[in-house]
């Protein structure tokens, strides 16, 4: 299945998705890495791996207008499923509707807890004993669609948002490629039986 990955920054989750495509039985390939931030470090990494990249600065553009541009780039690359990986912008409902159930996101909390930003600080502040990450289907509401996979880590005494983020990120890098592979395999299977 042809996957497009959308990033805004570092791109470590995108890199873990790329690494997964090296397995011979991986059901997806990454055909485009797209960003709203032309300076995203992840773009240079993807480029160095020979992956097509696309970037356009969203600033000064209306959300729907920018989303039409990125949508055209994804469709131009014949993308069949979109993976948001640290894509730090809300998506217009037109964009989300256009990809009906074909957009995944990774969020660094045990959804439905802690949608939005500063998830690790909020989990520590609340006195939670565990944290984690969730892969979910994207709907127009932020961090809100059906969860397809989760991983849990303990919150340890003395954890700071940074130490917890590091522990969770390791799980993100394992969880996201696995969840994407499962969803891609489901799409391929549903096509065969259609
Ligand atoms: C990750 O923690 C992800 O869960 C969140 O933003 C961060 C992106 O990191 N949505 P990276 O760009 O994948 O390294």
TrEMBL record:
GO terms for cellular component: cytosol. (6R)-10-formyltetrahydrofolate binds at residues 63, 88-91, 105. Signal peptide: none annotated. Residues 2-180 form the Formyl transferase N-terminal domain. It comes from the Bacteria. The record marks 143 as: Raises pKa of active site His. Pfam families: Formyl_trans_N. N(1)-(5-phospho-beta-D-ribosyl)glycinamide binds at residues 11-13. Keywords: Purine biosynthesis, Transferase. Its EC number is 2.1.2.2. It is an enzyme of class 2 (transferase). GO terms for molecular function: phosphoribosylglycinamide formyltransferase activity. GO terms for biological process: 'de novo' IMP biosynthetic process. Belongs to the GART family. Catalyzes the transfer of a formyl group from 10-formyltetrahydrofolate to 5-phospho-ribosyl-glycinamide (GAR), producing 5-phospho-ribosyl-N-formylglycinamide (FGAR) and tetrahydrofolate. This is Phosphoribosylglycinamide formyltransferase. The gene is purN.
């Amino acid at each position: 299945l042809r996957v497009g990955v959308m990033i805004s920054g570092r791109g470590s989750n995108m890199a873990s998705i790329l690494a997964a495509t090296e397995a011979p039985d991986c059901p997806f390939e990454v055909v485009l890495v797209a960003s709203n931030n032309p300076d995203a470090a992840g773009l240079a990494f993807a480029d160095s791996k020979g992956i097509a990249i696309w970037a356009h600065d969203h600033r000064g553009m209306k959300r729907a207008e920018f989303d039409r541009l990125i949508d055209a780039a994804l469709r131009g690359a014949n993308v069949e499923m979109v993976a948001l990986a640290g894509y730090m912008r809300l998506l217009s409902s037109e964009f989300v509707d256009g990809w009906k159930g074909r957009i995944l996101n990774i969020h660094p909390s045990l959804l439905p807890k802690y949608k939005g930003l500063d998830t690790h600080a909020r989990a520590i502040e609340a006195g939670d004993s565990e944290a984690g990450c969730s892969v979910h289907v994207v709907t127009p509401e932020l961090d809100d669609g059906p969860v397809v996979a989760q991983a849990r880590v303990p919150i340890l005494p003395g954890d700071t948002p940074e130490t917890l983020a590091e522990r969770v990120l390791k799980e993100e890098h394992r969880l996201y490629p696995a969840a994407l592979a499962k969803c891609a395999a489901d799409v391929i299977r549903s096509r065969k039986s259609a």
